[in-house]
Write a structure and sequence with these properties.
The protein is of the alpha/beta class. Helix content is 38%, strand content 27%. It has two domains: 4-217, P-loop containing nucleotide triphosphate hydrolases (Rossmann fold), CATH 3.40.50.300; 225-291, Alpha-Beta Plaits (2-Layer Sandwich). Bound molecules: adenosine-5'-triphosphate (ATP). InterPro entries: AAA+_ATPase (IPR003593), ABC_transporter-like_ATP-bd (IPR003439), ABC_transporter-like_CS (IPR017871), P-loop_NTPase (IPR027417).
Length: 309
């Protein structure tokens, strides 16, 4: 049985189609990342998969249960940590977990050991008496995760779980996710961070409600045609404009203080760029061929889509 299967899953809000004909199959034990920018349709997809929102068209099955017709039974088997996961700031860590244990009807006699384990697992044992409102951002997310796991779900849905969390806590959070994966939990995570997408077994790129690409990160990278030159300069914008104007066949994107130039692989382009920059008096700190990142792949896929539309 698949963990998740969707067939033409679609959601419309009036004139707007937030998710368009999504076809997706996710195996049990997979760590799947749904990646897209704000408004791409990630939350809407997740709400349909967790049975919170009915689709306008199409179907989805999670652990064999139909998400619209069997929503109530499904909710018992899944964990869902939404973007605005409901923690109670005036309650302590322990009281919040107990609150969710009540919601899921976990009998008192089974709770102690389970809660201790979740606290240890999320490194929250020393803070169990602290009010949730006084936890750091990273700890709040870990508490949210502990609450979403109280009923030992077989599949976990996480909507941008590390948004706004510092890099160290993010790494910590991901360590916990790998541990869960090791225990056989299927994880479906929505994220806008491409370094997090790279940690997934498989990644789906969603843009304006459409799934544009879906594969393992390495395979997505190998789809990328041509090769990439990284141009390091303190004048990224004028350099980007110059390259676009002079070499219309290449594509250029900005990555902080660097430019990534997607070329057809020919060797002369680096020399041409150097010469163009020298002529315009633009400072060049370095130019070298690099391996494409997931970000390059997505910029390239999105670029192709925008051209088509
Ligand atoms: N209840 C709603 N009514 C009307 N439009 C909605 C509703 N929910 C979402 N939308 C619209 O659907 C589109 C997809 O939104 P969605 O929240 O799924 O995106 P997202 O990828 O999760 O982005 P974010 O990270 O910003 O939540 C957006 O244009 C959003 O404004």
């Amino acid at each position: 049985m698949d963990a998740i299967r969707t067939d033409n899953l679609t959601k419309r809000f009036g004139q707007l189609t937030a998710v368009t004909g999504l076809n997706l199959t996710i195996a049990q034990g997979e760590l799947f990342g749904l990646v897209g920018s704000d408004g791409a349709g990630k939350t809407t997809t997740m709400r349909m998969l967790t049975g919170i929102m009915d689709p306008s068209a199409g179907d989805a099955w999670v652990l064999g249960r139909h998400t619209a017709r069997e929503a109530e039974a499904l909710k018992e088997e899944i964990g869902y940590m939404s973007q605005r996961f409901g923690l109670y700031p005036d309650l302590t860590v322990m009281e919040n977990i107990n609150f969710y244990a009540d919601i899921y009807g976990i009998p008192q006699k089974n709770r102690g050991e389970r809660i201790d384990r979740l606290l240890a697992f999320s490194n929250l044992t020393p803070f169990k008496k602290r009010q949730a409102g006084n936890l750091s951002g990273g700890m709040k997310q870990k508490l949210g995760l502990a609450c979403a796991l109280i009923h030992t779900p077989r599949i976990l849905f996480l909507d941008e779980p590390t948004n706004g969390v510092d890099p160290v806590s993010r790494r910590d959070f991901w360590r916990i996710l790998y541990q869960l994966l090791h225990e056989g939990v299927t994880i479906f995570v929505a994220t806008a961070y491409l370094d997090e997408a790279d940690r997934c077994n498989r990644v789906g790129l969603i843009h304006k409600g459409q799934l544009l690409a879906c594969d393992a990160p390495d395979r997505l990278r190998s789809l990328m045609h041509g090769s990439i030159l990284e141009v390091q300069t303190s004048a990224t914008r004028p350099t980007a404009i110059l390259i676009r104007r002079s070499l219309p066949a290449v594509s250029v994107s900005l990555f902080g203080d660097r430019l990534h130039v997607v070329t057809d692989g020919s060797r002369e382009i680096a020399a041409t760029i150097e010469a163009l920059m020298a002529k315009e008096g633009l400072p060049l700190a370095g130019i070298r061929a690099i391996e494409p990142s997931l970000e390059d792949v997505f910029v390239s896929v999105l670029g192709a889509t925008e051209q088509d539309s």
